[in-house]
Design a protein that fits this description.
Helix content is about 40%, strand content about 10%. It has eleven helices and nine strands.
């Protein structure tokens, strides 16, 4: 049975990202029932996305989410949308944290933010926490449970949940292909592939959407929370800021771009950020077969969705690398993203060739 050492924990607040906790406490005490005390504030790792803090009181812990400093367009880090989506979705999909309060008064801390309940559990990042040893059978169960939650999400009746306006709906596949082609072109630097063959291949093969459903749009193991005593059981899914209405196979393709297995090359293995390498995990081909069976879908063009996922990931990496290349950030973690984009291009070409 796992002990507290395997639970996901926040760390010290990063310099320059401190909260005015007195102002937050005053505002929060008018909205929900919190102790009359100043909570301890810690922060979760990451920072390319919205900033996430843990507020620890004597008898409870809460999570606060706010946009990064300097965000100019609310649409880029829309706290109200993120809060509203989860607040509606929890009624039909119980793996969403409970929303508690939303603030759009800039006088409090200078930006919108929201507070939600904390899900205490295990987050499976690149490696499982030390002290958590799962058998091959347990790893397999964890894998299928995570996939089952994705299937469950894609089967949600989004209209009855009040989420019919979450996205633009039909035509999602075409919008994504054309959008990522445009974004990659704008972020291209001299030392990365042009992806011209990949772009043309994708554009020539754009299918009709197989369905329209709620998609998380960043569905990975490190956005999943596992039960502390039953670490194969999913109790929550985090980071809904990219969620929208879209094609479920486009989401699966995006998710599998991060799925690293033992026969991948060094560049991919070095970039792994979830434990899909463990014995007992399904391989990418098996994931697709498992998902299609659960969703009762039959397709003959999976290669399109696979290449899309890889190209989308290349676009994401390139947008980040562009900032590093032009000295807009000095984060050394971004230094070699251009190399990974060469590896992604080669993998795209390999999949395209096999599909002929």
């Amino acid at each position: 049975m796992p002990n507290n050492s395997v639970l996901d924990k926040a760390k010290s607040v990063r310099e320059g990202e401190e909260l005015d906790i007195q102002a937050i406490q005053k505002w929060l005490s008018d909205k929900i029932d919190v102790p009359n005390e100043t909570p301890q504030v810690t922060q979760y790792s990451g920072g390319a996305s919205n900033w996430t803090y843990c507020l620890t009181y004597s008898d409870r812990e809460l999570i606060l989410r706010r946009p990064p400093a300097g965000t100019k367009a609310k649409s880029a880090h829309d706290m109200n949308r993120e809060y509203t989506v989860q607040n509606a979705l929890i009624k039909v999909f119980p793996y969403v944290p409970k929303m508690l309060a939303f603030c759009d008064d800039s006088a409090v801390i200078g930006c919108d933010f929201y507070v939600m309940e904390k899900l205490n559990g295990i987050i499976p990042r690149a490696n499982l926490p030390k002290g958590l040893d799962l058998s091959e059978k347990e790893v397999h169960q964890l894998c299928t449970n995570v996939l089952d939650r994705l299937v469950e999400l894609h089967q949600v009746d989004y209209k009855s949940a009040g989420l019919a306006t979450l996205g633009k709906g039909e035509g999602y596949t075409r919008r994504q292909i054309e959008g990522w082609i445009n974004r990659y072109g704008k972020a291209k630097t001299w030392n990365v592939p042009s992806y011209k063959k990949v772009m043309a291949w994708l554009h020539e093969r754009i299918p009709e959407d197989v369905a329209t459903c709620v998609i998380h749009n960043d569905y990975r193991f490190d956005n999943v929370v596992l039960h502390p005593q039953q670490p194969t059981k999913v109790i929550g899914i985090l980071d809904w800021e990219l969620s929208t209405l879209g094609d479920p196979l486009m989401e699966l393709g995006s998710s599998l771009a991060y799925w690293i297995q033992d026969d991948d090359n060094f560049a991919f293995k070095a970039s792994r950020r979830q434990p899909t390498n463990l014995k007992g995990m399904l391989r990418r081909k098996e994931v697709v077969e498992y998902y299609l069976d659960k969703m009762d879908l039959k397709i003959d063009n999976w290669s399109f969705y696979e290449v899309y996922g890889l190209f989308r990931l290349a676009g994401i990496l390139q947008q980040i690398y562009y900032r590093y290349h032009h000295k807009q950030t000095r984060n050394p973690a971004f230094k070699n993203f251009w190399i990974l984009n060469h590896a992604l291009n080669q993998r795209c070409l390999k999949v395209m060739k096999a599909a002929k």
